[in-house]
C-alpha cells in the first residue's frame, strides 16, 4: 500500500496530533506500507520556522522508514483568525502545487481540521487517483461556531459547503470519539463511511512514570526547595496540565481554583506544560501577580512529558462547557492514565463517562472554579485514593488503548479503502 498522509501538524513540532500522526506513519511503515507524509515546515505554535529548517518550495527527508515532504507555508502563530486562515490556506495551496513531486499513491489520508486542507485533499486525491480517507479530529466549523471564533454567516456557510464536499468525496472517515462518529453517521454525505477509531497511547513511553505513584512513594519531595506547606498542612499537591493551552480548554478556571485555595491558606503547585492561543493571557495574569505557585513551561519536547508526569501527583484535563466538547476524548487524558496518575477532569460527556467507569479520577463540571478547588483539596488529603485511581487508569490504558491494536485497526481501514 502506497500511503500519503497530508497534515498541517508533524514533528519536530510538539502536540497531540504531531505525536499521533508520527506514530501512525512509523507503525504503518514497519508493517510494510510505503508511507509519505506531506506537511509544511515546522512552525507551530509560535509561527516561527524552527532551525535548521528554512521555508522553501519543497524539501524531502527520510526518518525511520517514512519519507517526509515539506512544502512552503506562511508561518503564523496559533492565534488570530485572519493570520491562521492565511496559514492554513498557504499549506493547502502549496500542497496541491507540490503534489506531483511526491510520486504515486493508493490512499491519501488527511487530518482535519484544518478544513482548508481537507478541501485541498479532494483535488489532491483526484490528481493521484487515490482513495481519500479523512481523520476528523474535530467537528469544524461546528466547534468554531460554538466557541465564538467563527461568526460570519457567509464564512460559516462556505465552511459547511467545503466540509460536506470533503465528506462526499471520502471513501472512509475515521472518527476518534463516539460523539464524532454518531454525528457523522447521521449526515447524508458521510453516512456509512464513519469508522470509530478511538485514540491510543504509547504505553511503554509512560511505563517508568507508572511504575510507582510519586506522591505516595515520597511525599516530602513535593515540598523540596520551597518550604511551603500545602493544603491540610501537608506538602503541596503537585498538579500537572500537559497539552495544548487553547481556547477549547479554559485553563483560566485552573488559575481561579488555585487562587481560591491560596486564599484559604494552602494551594497546589501547578505546572502547565504546553502552548497555544490562551497562553499569552495566562502568562500576563501570572505576571500581574497571581496566583502564586503556578509555573508555565511553554511547549516542551515530547520526550520530557513522561518525566513531568512522574514528578506530579494529579493530572488535570480540562474542556470548556460547550456541547461540542461532550463528544471529545483528549489524548492527554489517555497519557495521564498510562502514566498511572489520577485524573482530575473538568468536562462533560464521553471523557467524563470514561473516567467514572474506570474509577481513574474525579470528574467536576467544566468552568467551575469552586468545584475544581474542592476536588483538588480532597485529592490532596487522600494519597491512598490517588494511588488507587492511578493504578486503575494504567490498567484501563493497557486493556483498551494500546498502540499495537490501534495500528492494526488503522491498517485494516486503509487497506479496505
Task: Provide an overview of this structure.
The chain is of the alpha/beta class and 417 residues long. The chain has two domains: 2-200 and 402-416, Rossmann fold, CATH 3.40.50.2000; 204-400, Rossmann fold, CATH 3.40.50. It has helices at residues 16-30, 81-98, 115-128, 142-147, 153-169, 178-185, 207-210, 214-217, 252-263, 279-287, 305-310, 331-338, 350-358, 369-380, 383-400, 403-416; strands spanning 2-6, 34-40, 58-63, 66-71, 107-112, 131-136, 172-175, 194-196, 238-242, 269-273, 294-298, 314-318, 343-346, 361-364. The chain has an eight-stranded mixed sheet, with helices on both faces. Helix 2 packs parallel to helix 3 (115-128), helix 3 (115-128) packs parallel to helix 5 and helix 12 packs across helix 15 (383-400). The radius of gyration is 21 Å and the shape is globular.
Secondary-structure blueprint:
Elements: E1 2-6, H1 16-30, E2 34-40, E3 58-63, E4 66-71, H2 81-98, E5 107-112, H3 115-128, E6 131-136, H4 142-147, H5 153-169, E7 172-175, H6 178-185, E8 194-196, H7 207-210, H8 214-217, E9 238-242, H9 252-263, E10 269-273, H10 279-287, E11 294-298, H11 305-310, E12 314-318, H12 331-338, E13 343-346, H13 350-358, E14 361-364, H14 369-380, H15 383-400, H16 403-416
Parallel strand pairs: 1-2, 1-5, 2-4, 5-6, 6-7, 7-8, 9-10, 9-12, 10-11, 12-13, 13-14
Antiparallel strand pairs: 3-4
Helix pairs in contact: 2-3, 3-5, 9-14, 12-15
